[in-house]
Specification:
By secondary structure, the protein is of the alpha/beta class. It has a single domain, classed as Immunoglobulin-like, CATH 2.60.40.420. The strands form two sheets. Strands 2-1-4-5 form a four-stranded mixed β-sheet, with no helix packed on it.
């Protein structure tokens, strides 16, 4: 009886290690998806005549949200997403942006440290672009970038 309990514990522990360890022999293309440019280590400069538009990524008693959630920009502007509190990303979803093109094809990296930024140079055409924070979209963390 003691032997079968120890064997069961050993098998369970082994399965847990294998499940958590991942496939060490997988190629990068099998384990990663394309990403947008990483959160910038330094600021991105707007095009001549462009401006920097600051958007805060926030978690507080009101919830999880972008401040502001609706952004008006022109080609050449930089939208600077700055983490205030929480862990957030910025994702322009293809299935929610079917009538526009040129937006970032993959989500940003997760911003985890207060003050960390993700700069987005607006170099795509006029239109209304939907974006969200992936882990908090169901909680209402979404917005629109309106390019003039």
């Amino acid at each position: 009886m003691k032997h079968s309990i120890r064997l069961t514990k050993f098998v369970a522990a082994t399965l847990l290690l294998v499940a958590c360890g991942g496939d060490k022999n997988a190629t990068p293309s099998e384990t990663s998806k394309p990403t947008a440019p990483a959160a910038s280590a330094g600021p991105v400069t707007p095009a001549p005549g462009g401006k920097i538009i600051d958007v805060q990524l926030v978690t507080d008693e009101k919830g999880n949200y972008f401040d502001p959630a609706d952004i008006n920009a022109s080609k050449g502007d930089v939208v600077r997403f700055t983490l205030k509190v929480g862990v957030h990303n910025v994702h322009f979803l293809p299935d929610s942006n079917t009538k526009v093109t040129g937006y970032p094809a993959a989500p940003s990296e997760f911003l985890q440290l207060p003050g960390q930024t993700y700069d987005l140079l607006v170099n795509f055409g006029p239109g209304k672009y939907y974006f969200q924070c992936d882990p908090h979209a169901a909680l209402g963390m979404m917005g629109h970038l309106i390019v003039q």
